[in-house]
From TrEMBL:
EC numbers for this chain: 3.4.24.55
Domain called Peptidase M16 N-terminal: residue spans: 76-199
Coiled coil residues, start to end: none
Cofactor(s) named in the record: Zn(2+)
GO biological process: proteolysis
Keyword Protease among record annotations: yes
InterPro entries: Metalloenz_LuxS/M16, Pept_M16_N, Pept_M16_Zn_BS, Peptidase_M16, Peptidase_M16_C, Peptidase_M16_M, PqqF-like_C_4
Domain Peptidase M16 middle/third, first and last residues per copy: 424-724
Stated name of the protein: Protease 3
Length: 1015
């Protein structure tokens, strides 16, 4: 173990050990000697006490208090007291999922997850929970995985007790009302249809076809109308009966784990939990036990070739390995994946890129169940690489053998352990609902002591265990999966006699072939390529994790009604032609982290489709050139992002402050003097073309939103125009373009975090030396928003390569400003839950149903969207219009009290505490982009919302949403099975003038733009 003096010091000062007896009487912190702390935090070998199983280790920088206990019904509970939270949250995880589906009822566990939201005996209305949570600034959701079902929500602090009471009834007395059982099957079926063309789902379902059919993972899990019908059960049971039977068998308190986060003291939260959740019955259920292996020895090795929906080329190697959960303190696969998945110099990926065969590589645990697991290697291939499958596979096995022969080192394990310890000690706070959901699952995974630390624990170096897992990664124990859109051409000579098979329900086409023993022998014995090496020690491991003294302390940061004081926001420390630098030293989060942003703005970045794609190519090639250098930084908690945008490109560096300038300097040097090699340019061009083509393969609702932005943003070019422009771009063109791009620029930067002003100024030095010195300062305008004409119904229809269809109805506001932004946001808050209930739950139109405020560059807007597997967009639009007509009555009948609840919820959402430094930095950067140097967009929006009256919101609805002067854009995305609408719905309301948008580019040329006047 090296260089742990600082860590020992931090641990001795602040290690948090939460220890509560099962009666939840708070006791004093454990007394631990320095030697014990060294053992616990440095060697991380502290074991749970045999006498007290409610001890919880937490980071010294975590101010929350934790208590773990078990109710008399054997429900596991973790209570978290967080005085600083502005959102309370809860999650309940049941240790059962799709693994327990009856063979005759695929999708039953998932369907049951849907049903619990649709009424309980105490709160029978099917939208009661969603309406309550939405009205009180919250969100709610759930997921079903192979072995878990997880329900979670957040809510404003004042309504946690009531929300818990409603939530608890899910697991005490759900109604399973017959009417909603029938209706919700349609929602599950719509979800299934939405995923049918998702390549990740198709790949997983293909793997299931070639694995052990007796293992429950091999079954279809989503469910649809066929599997959830009353006739589907082979025993003659109706679906409602099967739901109730599954619920009574597995939804037992002894299989449940609950997490509650609130501002209240632990004693209060515990009392509420006992009062509500003790009523959950304990059926003494046993977890579903699996005795079958995922793959039998006879099934491996094998190769499967799958034709994907999107244009992608991928090679995946999947190895069955022993269960991982018993080894969470040694994490053998993390060590192995670190070496196989490394992207630094001398890595497997670097060699594959040098050969022109691959673009990306990842490795790690893929399926981690209580009985078994798998280890996967996934490689994104180039067109050249798809023809070199056997050679690439050979290199993967060479990398594995290199590890076996020369790559098992204690120093490397200790380096990973050190990085894991740093991440645990200085982890950033996440949203309460995410944290609760994660920990509810973790209660089933780890001993109470390590509920928080389990994912980070790497306490013991075990060479024998590492070699045991390495011994399973052999050519005889592998499933090779190849995704190839042109497989008929690629493998015509070798697989012509192998028949195609079809994946049930999904219709994906695949071929399976056994791997020739001679080929396996070649992979096993081929010499190790000397260009693959074990990673060197990581130069980016932070050494200075101290907090900088505050040079201008000011007052502590406080979110207030009146907004920020002058010392509570970034200040501009450089303001010269071509360079503007903002700085703010963090005095809130107390972490050795910082965020540094800078943007290079160029007037030619996006002025034409050709320049748009050349900017994207510039960014892609710089990222590619930086990979070997930046990857070790990412392992050490120092990430960067480089991305193009309307005005140019931006860089974000985020993480521990210690080595940020080292990374920044290399990024800036590469931007200013990029090395464009012909082979990498060819591959980058292919990759960008592929991504642009795949936009038409995205989820339908995403395509509709993209079309909205294409129509309303200027400049914003459709994918077809960018693809056409890209075809003619040469390497010579790019080499000419980049100096022109960098010749006339302006730079804007933000430095925020554990930095002093001198540090921020020092970060600017590389920018001045490499980017600004020879550039001509040039002001670059923001993007513009097209102003829709009043009284027109603008309609744009696009074709989808998907069976689903989408209708979107978008209402644009009248002017920029925080007041109208607040008005649209309040309408979205009020209409969100009833829109979802009416169109999804009641009318069964689809799985994706959205109503929300949707501003574009601060131009206010309100969006209504439905994606449906069986309804034409024109019919969907008619349903949306009917809802909007009824909305006038909804607002007319709304009480002042209910309106205040919604307004309070909006204000709570708007002023939500920013959980961590990165969230706040991102807002600062957005406000810089908005040219809002008061940095109080949230406060101004909240202040505007406070003054909105119910009468005013009714007026806004009548005039902006229903009136003749509304600005409306309708987008119809027509799926393969939706060519003919119902005739009575294929018409425009008489009060609207139809404007058909045939070509967004031509349309935008004839329209006005929103005024830049802001607020």
């Amino acid at each position: 173990m090296r260089n742990f003096t600082w860590l020992l010091k931090a641990a001795m000062e602040n290690l948090h050990v939460h220890d509560f007896p099962t009666t939840i009487r708070r006791i004093n912190a454990l007394t631990i000697s320095p030697a014990s702390i060294l053992l616990a935090v440095i060697s991380l070998a502290l074991a749970p006490s045999a006498r007290c199983n409610t001890t919880i280790l937490s980071s010294p920088h975590d101010a929350r208090q934790y208590a773990a206990f078990e109710l008399p019904n054997r429900l596991k509970v973790l209570v978290i007291e967080d005085p600083k939270t502005d959102k309370s949250a809860a999650a309940l995880d049941i240790f059962v999922g799709s693994n327990a589906n009856p063979a005759s009822r695929p999708g039953l566990a998932h369907f049951l997850e849907h049903m619990l939201f649709l009424g309980t005996r105490k709160y029978p209305e099917p939208d009661a929970f969603q309406a309550f949570i939405t009205k009180h600034a919250g969100e709610q959701n759930a997921y079903t995985s192979f072995a878990h079902t997880n329900y979670f929500f957040d809510v404003d602090n004042n309504h946690l007790r009531e929300a818990l009471d409603r939530f608890g009834q899910f697991f005490i007395a759900p109604t399973f009302a017959k009417a909603y059982v029938d209706r919700e099957r349609s929602a599950v079926d719509a979800e299934f249809h939405a995923k049918k063309k998702n390549d990740a789902w198709r790949k997983m379902e293909t793997i299931k076809q070639v694995m052990n059919p007796r293992h429950p993972f091999s079954r279809f899990t989503i469910g649809n109308l066929a599997t959830l019908s009353d006739k589907a059960d082979t025993e003659g049971n109706r679906i409602q009966e099967d739901l109730i039977a599954f619920y009574r068998r597995y939804y037992s308190a002894n299989l449940m784990a609950l997490v509650v986060i609130g501002k209240e003291p632990i004693d209060v939260l515990t009392r509420w939990i006992r009062e509500i959740f003790s009523a959950i019955p304990n059926f003494q259920a046993k977890p579903s036990r699996i005795t079958e292996p995922m793959f039998t020895p006879e099934q491996l090795p094998t190769r499967v070739t799958l034709k994907p929906v999107q244009e992608q080329r991928r090679l995946e190697l999947l190895f069955p390995v022993p269960a991982l959960k018993p080894h969470y303190k040694t994490k053998p696969l993390r060590y192995i994946s670190h070496i196989i998945g490394h992207e630094g110099k001398g890595s497997l990926l670097s060699l594959l890129k040098e050969q022109g065969w691959a673009e990306a590589l990842s490795a790690g645990a893929r399926h981690d169940h209580t009985d078994s697991a798998t280890f996967g290697v996934s490689i994104t291939l180039t067109k050249k690489g798809i023809g070199k499958i056997d050679e690439i596979t050979a290199l993967v096995f060479q990398a594995i053998r290199l590890m076996e022969e020369r790559g098992v080192h204690e120093w490397l394990f200790q380096e990973l352990s050190q990085l894991a310890n740093i991440d645990f000690l200085f982890q950033q706070k996440s949203p309460s609902t995410d944290y609760a959901s994660h920990l509810a699952n973790a209660l089933h995974q780890y001993p109470t002591l390590d509920i928080l630390r389990g994912p980070f624990a790497m306490d013991h170096y075990d060479e024998a265990l590492l070699r045991q897992y390495l011994g399973t990664l052999t050519p005889n124990n592998v499933l090779i999966l190849v995704l190839d859109p042109d497989t008929e051409k690629t493998t015509a000579e070798t697989t012509a006699d192998i028949p195609w098979s079809e994946v049930p329900w999904f219709g994906a086409q695949y071929r399976q072939e056994q791997i020739d023993p001679d080929l396996s022998q070649t992979w096993r014995k081929s010499p190790i390529d000397t260009r693959i090496v074990i990673p060197s020690p990581n130069i980016f491991i932070p050494r200075d994790l101290s907090l900088k003294s505050v040079t201008n302390p000011g007052r502590p940061f406080v979110i207030s009604h009146s907004g920020y004081g002058p010392k509570d926001r970034p200040t501009r420390i450089i303001h010269t032609p071509g360079l503007s630098v903002w700085f703010r030293q963090d005095t809130t989060y107390g972490m050795p982290r910082a965020d540094f942003y800078f943007s290079i703005r160029s007037p030619i970045a996006n002025d034409t489709p050709t320049h748009s794609v050349m900017t994207a190519l510039f960014v892609a090639l710089v990222r590619d050139q930086l990979t070997e250098f930046s990857y070790p930084a990412s392992l050490a908690g120092l990430d960067y992002d480089l991305y193009p945008h309307i005005r140019g490109l931006s860089v974000r560096i985020s993480g521990y402050h210690d080595k940020q300038k080292l990374l920044l300097t290399r990024i800036v040097e590469t931007l200013s003097r990029p090395k464009f090699q012909p082979e990498r340019f060819r591959i980058a061009k292919q990759e960008l073309t592929r991504k642009l083509r795949n936009i038409r393969k995205q989820m339908p609702y995403r395509q509709a939103v993209l079309e909205l932005r294409t129509i309303l943003l200027q400049p914003h070019f459709p994918p077809s125009a960018r693809i056409e422009a890209l075809e003619s771009v040469t390497l010579s063109d790019l080499r000419t373009f980049v100096p022109e791009f960098l010749q006339r620029i302006s730079l804007v930067a933000l430095s925020h975090g554990n930095l002093q002003e001198a540090d921020a100024l020092d970060m600017i030095v590389p920018l001045k030396e490499h980017l600004i010195r020879n550039a001509i300062p040039t002001k670059v305008s923001r993007g513009q928003v097209i102003e829709l004409a009043k009284g027109n119904s603008h309609i744009r229809t696009i074709a989808l390569d998907h069976n689903d269809a989408v209708a979107m109805v978008y209402f644009q506001g009248q002017q920029r400003g925080f007041r109208e932004l607040a008005e649209m946001a309040l309408l979205g808050q009020i209409l969100k839950a009833p829109f979802f209930h009416r169109l999804r739950t009641e009318q069964e139109l689809g799985y994706v149903v959205l109503a929300k405020a949707f501003p574009i560059i601060e131009a206010p807007g309100l969006l209504f969207l439905v994606q449906s597997p069986n309804t034409h967009p024109a019919d969907l639009t008619n349903h949306i219009r009917q809802f909007l007509t009824a909305g006038s009555d909804t607002l007319a009948g709304m009480s002042e009290t209910e309106f205040i609840h919604h307004k309070t919820a909006l204000i709570t959402r708007t002023l939500a505490l920013e959980e961590n430094l990165k969230v706040r930095s991102n807002r600062y950067w957005q406000e810089i982009e908005m040219q809002l140097d008061t940095f109080d967009s949230r406060e101004q929006t909240a202040d505007a919302a406070r003054t909105i009256t119910l009468a005013e919101i009714r007026h806004i609805y009548r005039t902006r949403i229903q009136g003749n002067n509304k600005r409306q854009l309708i987008i119809h995305a027509v799926g393969n099975g939706h060519r003919q609408p119902s005739s009575e719905n294929n018409r425009i309301p008489e009060d609207m003038i139809p404007v058909i948008i045939q070509d967004p580019t031509l349309f935008k040329q004839k329209q006005n733009v929103f005024s830049e006047k802001n607020n």
